[in-house]
Write a structure and sequence with these properties.
Blueprint (H helix, E strand, L loop, with lengths): L12 H18 L17 H6 L22 H5 L6 E7 L4 H9 L7 H12 L7 E4 L4 H7 L3 H13 L8 E3 L11 H8 L3 E3 L7 E9 L3 H12 L4 E9 L4
Parallel strand pairs: 1-6, 2-5, 5-6
Antiparallel strand pairs: 3-4
Helix pairs in contact: 5-7
The chain binds zinc ion (ZN) (2 copies).
One zinc ion (ZN) binds next to helix 3.
Amino acid sequence: MVASSKNRPHLSNSRHSIIDGCVKFVQSLFSEACLLCGDRATRGQLCASCHTALPYHDQPACPICALPTAGGETCGSCLTHPPRFDETLAAFTFTFPIDAVLHAYKYAGNLALIEFLATPLVERALSRPFPDLLIPMPLHPARLKQRGFNQALEIARLFARRLDVPVHPHACRRIRDTPPQATLKHDQRSANLRGAFACDIPLHGKHVALIDDVMTSGASLGELAKAVRKQGAARISVWVVARTLPH
Ligand SMILES: [Zn+2]
Ligand SMILES: [Zn+2]
């Protein structure tokens, strides 16, 4: 342990500055660099200023789909076309730098980013009723082969460890390899996903949390929820790292 400046009152100013320099050097050897700016990380994997600037999803929002509403009431879309899931919990909005970090996690395979991405969501989940099981958004086998890992499953595994809730990686399957939703117009999206998922385990009376990295239109999670509901699930929560908000 390096002595603090309080404990060395008899040293000259120049010796103080040399010792303070050494203290900073030793601290830098033992602390990680901030994931976002490379400065010294003091808050988990981030420096204090990057931590403060993160786009947490804290504004009043529809409890079902997590889109912002004036007073946190259910939005018009969920009232007219209720999704098959009951609630959505999102830690961040899908804006910079979370979009860039999620991209590095998902497409560059930087699995070291999971802690950073998922920990705020775990903290939010702690204040909610715990589900009986976690089901990650399944990837089609062809996509899994291409990417090498399922980003939603890795996040679900972290939740399972932290919350002591079982994860069922093979409960649901993606039975059609659909074109990416982003390439389609809004009215084509639900048709694109129809019947894309199948669930193989009985879920009668269970509270299920569906896990994914990002919710954009919510169409994929809605379709997965439909398959989970068919198996008898009583309550379906959606937990996503980030929620895309309308511009
Ligand atoms: Zn930083
Ligand atoms: Zn809504």
